[in-house]
Amino acid sequence: KAVVSTQSTGFLKTKVDIYLPGKAANAGGVATSALEMAQNSARLFWSTEEVDEKLKGIMNNIFATSYQTAQEFDRPWDLQFGANAAGFLKVYKAYKAMGYLKF
Fold it and tell me: Do 75 and 36 touch, CB atoms closer than 8 A?
């Protein structure tokens, strides 16, 4: 298991064109498992090409959401920030919609 400190992450961001957060990279495996469960529960069969196409759509959406959120907060190409902020906003909006938050 590779662990990268906050200081190391900052260094890496200065040395690479795009730094992708681990949560976005790991989402591919999680999404593949979710697709498999959906396929099994519906008793469907998807070809490898269909699964790849669905996974590509999921991963493109993760990138687009991370990128767009980073832009909205004036942090262009900070995909780590964008992914974290997008995740936070999704949970915040859900809690607010359920009435848990009054502000």
Answer: no
